[in-house]
Amino acid sequence: xxxxxxxxxxxxxxxxxxxxxxxxxxxxxxxxxxxxxxxxxxxxxxxxxxxxxxxxxxxxxxxxxxxxxxxxxxxxxxxxxxxxxxxxxxxxxxxxxxxxxxxxxxxxxxxxxxxxxxxxxxxxxxxxxxxxxxxxxxxxxxxxxxxxxxxxxxxxxxxxxxxxxxxxxxxxxxxxxxxxxxxxxxxxxxxxxxxxxxxxxxxxxxxxxxxxxxxxxxxxxxxxxxxxxxxxxxxxxxxxxxxxxxxxxxxxxxxxxxxxxxxxxxxxxxxxxxxxxxxxxxxxxxxxxxxxxxxxxxxxxx
Length: 302
Hints:
Low-confidence stretches: none
Helix content: over 70%
Distance between the termini: 14 Å
Order of helices and strands: HHHHHHHHHHHHHH
C-alpha cells in the first residue's frame, strides 16, 4: 500500500468510529455540534497559529494559495448559481445548493489529514488556501444564505463582520506576524497550545462521523451538488496548478483542497436563515462518504 495512504487511513478511520459511537447512542448529534464549535474556535486556530508561526514559506506563496482558494469558490458559486437558475429551484433549496457547491471542508477534514501525513509545512499552506475559502464561506456565504433564506435579508457588511469574527483568520494573521518578524513563541504559550493542536485531528474526525447519515433527501440534486463541489472543483484546481506551475506541497494542497467534501457551514446557515436543513444535511453527509473514498485515491496519486 502507498505509504501516504497508510499514514492517512488511521485518522480517516476515526470518522467510522464517530459514526458507530453515534449509532450506539454513546454520542449524540448535539455532541457533534459541540465538537465542531470546539474545533473551529479552539483546536483548529491552535494548529494553524503554531504551523504558520514556525513555517518556512514565502509570503507570496501564501498569497497565491489564498487566491487559489478564493478563485475555486468563486467559480463554483457562479456555476452553482447558474445551475440552480436553470433547474428553477425554490429559494431554500437553491441557497443550500449554491453553498454546497462552493464551500470546501478544509478545517475539519483536510487539515487533520495533511497534518498527520505531511506535517506542519502542509498545514500552513492549507491554512493559507483556507483564507480564500473562508472569505467565501463565512462572509459571502452568509450573505447568500440570507438572500435565499426565509429570514430577513442582511447586507454584505454583515458578512464582512462575520469573517472578521472567525478565530481561524486571526490565528493566520498572528502566525504571519510572528513568522515574518522572526519572533519565537514564549515557552508557556507553546506548551499551552501544543496539546490543543494535537487534539484537533481526532476531534475533527469524530465530529464528521457523528454527522454522517445514510438518509438522503433529493438524491439526484444532492449528487449533482456533490459532483460540482468535488468533481468540477478538482478540475478547476488542476487548471490553477497548470496556470501557476505549482509543485511540491503547494500542488498537493490545491489538488486535495479542491476535491474536499462540502463544509459544515451550509447546514449551520440553513438552520439559522431558513434554508432547507434536510437537503443541507444530506449533501454534507453524502459528500463525506464520497470523500472517504476519494481522499485516499488522491493521496495515492500525489
